[in-house]
Design goal:
By secondary structure, the protein is α+β, with helices and mostly antiparallel strands. The protein has two domains: 4-71, Arc Repressor Mutant, subunit A; 88-165, Arc Repressor Mutant, subunit A, CATH 1.10.10. Helices cover 47% and strands 13% of the residues. A hairpin with a 7-residue loop joins β4 (129-134) and β5.
């Protein structure tokens, strides 16, 4: 029987989306789950230790090969694609949904102080947010949560990987680098 580690590596390499341990176990039913988990851990360590541009990352509930951010500028030359850009209102809405989910549109609008219907619709179309169901209150409003695509886009293993409020506040307390202009955030944007 062929060695397990190269088989797992090839499955992850060829997949266009992160592969979960469960999915790999279904694909490789002739191998034990513990052996597959060990192969994943070994591969992750191998790619980290080799010091190359590619790593095996756990994102969106699965494993996927990713390039390190410091090579993004060079990779853009090949793909000629633009990274997704988000308006300030979209980023604020996504952050609120990510941290407070499950959440209704009215709750998002209360926290942001402005109408969020268009932004939520856009996030739904981009498959970054999904409808989880309806809240059991009068009017039965829809409740929203983030998707696996959200986790993939922001390179998050899971929602627990989001920075804590303390970490976000500490980012705001750091002094600006010399020559780095302060960004005008929050004025008149909605």
């Amino acid at each position: 029987m062929p060695e397990l580690k190269p088989i797992v590596e090839s499955l992850i390499f060829i997949s266009d989306a992160p592969l979960s341990l469960d999915r790999i176990c279904v694909l490789l039913e002739e191998f034990e789950r513990g052996d597959i988990r060990s192969a994943l851990m070994e591969l992750t360590a191998d790619y980290r230790l080799r010091g190359g541009a590619v790593v095996l990352a756990e994102v969106g509930g699965g494993y996927q090969f990713r390039t390190l951010p410091e090579y993004a500028e060079y990779l853009k030359r090949l793909t000629k694609s633009r990274p997704p850009k988000f308006s300030q209102s979209a980023l604020e809405t996504l952050a609120i949904v990510a941290y407070r989910q499950p959440i209704t549109r009215a709750e998002v609008e209360y926290l942001r102080g402005v109408d969020c219907g268009g932004v939520l619709k856009s996030c739904l179309e981009k498959r970054l947010v999904r409808i989880l169901g309806k809240k059991d209150v009068p009017g039965r409003p829809l409740i929203y949560g983030t998707t696996k695509e959200f986790l993939e886009l922001f390179s998050l293993r899971d929602l627990a990987s989001l920075p804590t409020l303390k970490e976000v506040q500490e980012l705001g307390e750091r002094p600006f680098e010399e020559g780095q202009p302060e960004l005008p955030l929050g004025e008149g944007q909605g």
